[in-house]
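Minutes, project check-in
Item: structure for the 453-residue chain
Input as provided by the requester:
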Amino acid sequence: MPMMLIASKFAVPIILLILGWLAGDFVASKEVSVIAAEADTQVLGVGELDNLRPTLVYLGFFLPAIAAWIQALSPQQDRYVGKKFLLSLAMITGMIGGLWVLLDVQGRLEDFGDSPELTQVLEYYLITSPAVFAELLPYCVLIAAIVMFSELSKHREIIALVQSGRSLLAVAKVPIFHAILLSVGMFIVNFHWAPIAEAQGELFLERQSQKNAENQKSKGPQWIQSFNAEHNRLWFLSNDSTSDSNRYANVSIIEYDENQEPVYRWNAKEAIWLGEKGWELLNVSHFKVDKTANIPVSNDSLLIKPWKETPRQLILPKLDPEAMGVTHLWKWLSINQAGASKEKAVYKTHFHQRWASSFLPLAYVLIAIPLACYFDRRSSSSAIVSALLILFVIQILQSLTLALGESGRLSAFLSAWLINALLLLTTFYLWIKNIHGLPLTVWVASLTKKRHA
């Protein structure tokens, strides 16, 4: 009989461990192949941080098994509280996730085409699932923690657990451990997969929708503009280029004098990067530019210019930081160390934001403890209303601090981590007010008296 109990107790952790190992091994091998392909196709190339991606994939698939082992090895009371939290999180995540998908599908019916297949819809949401996970998880964690702790307080279970000689933090330690694992999961998807998921989803829709493809053709080539301030050259690169990252079609280069007046212009059918030799321009027309017109100078089938702008330096300024993970942002900042401070501020802000937002699940669980745990006859609805108000305020502040960081008015580090700091201060305030039942000034005065005594 004891063997049967032990087997039933550890069956789920062992099964999740095996499944995590098999899934992690499969997906990590695919990620290795993706990284190898990015060495040739990614504008930013592959850096040292990219080698962490297969390891993070492994870790991500082992997180459910780690949570199951925490549950299995915890005392009975901790298992009970942890189980309540996981069930509440599953219920809230299912409700919010399902509602989000229904609303998103309705808004994307035209994007899927006239007669979308179910497999196409499922494939799209599978591609974008990392971005959806990173977007919805913090809110789901806060609401689930509020609902769970409010339910325990409503049925006087919190009082019983505390009266058994345990502190409130000890009662909530298993949900806190689970929140730490969720924060690790947030960091894993924020590291690379969540930022690029939305862009990959849009690319998938463009490929599936014939209407979008026809519209894209009717628009003609789209132009990328890049200015080299050191040598006063302005580049126009067409997106109608070959797959070779060192070869571009329909290129126009304008050179300026020291007064920022245009002097020369080259229009080339094709431009090829030769490395140390510079650029090779094919079928190029050379113009002298004055204030009113372009004066033709020559036409050459082949022209080599010793310009040192690399393809990466030309394309990088136009990469969308919202669609770049930690590795790509780090590489962009490394390549553009001498770039304009205002332009770098955008990428620095998003780089720090990837790290800071990963701690939101843990911060929300910590704030839910003093917000939802009570020892009187108050209604649990007040805690839920307070949680929704906190989410509303945090959403506004996140948009504000992100905008201030991108504009350079606030340091990138501070703009990203300010929300976390405010959440911790709010947790501290609520702990003193709701758990100790004291105004903050009275609590500080009591500490001062104890210190003097």
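Outcome recorded: Residues 215-220 have pLDDT under 50 and may be disordered.
No further action items on this chain.
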